[in-house]
Amino acid sequence: MISRMKRSNIDKTRIMTKIQETLAGLPQETKERIAPVFGSVEAMYEVIYLIARNEHLTDLDKPENYEVRMKVIRRIRSQVEELLTSYGLDGKEIVADIASDYFEDYVKYVDKEVSITNGQFMDILHKIERAKV
Fold first, then answer.
1. Total tally of structural domains belonging to the chain
2. What is the pLDDT of residue 20?
3. Residue 40: strand, helix, or coil
């Protein structure tokens, strides 16, 4: 098994995934539409990655109020898909591709570090909920 320290070294040298490359190559106009809610395309990727991770781990752990938590997570995921679609993107495809990145990391025991804080994540989730599509 890979030690925690080696895992984080892998993350820092990791080549961008296909969806990360696609997002990085978005037109500036689209990036500007993303910025008010997510801050940046990179932060958007991390938020969606964290949503996928939260959904998966909640489903695995089945914590107290499992059904309610899953309903909230899925509602937010759906709102993200709709928001991205309103930007002229394929929201379902983007969310699915980022979730695929998460699951690839999960099966390889990669503990991906994200740059956004828990507070920033929560702030973005609130912006997603308030966004008009």
1. 1
2. 96
3. coil
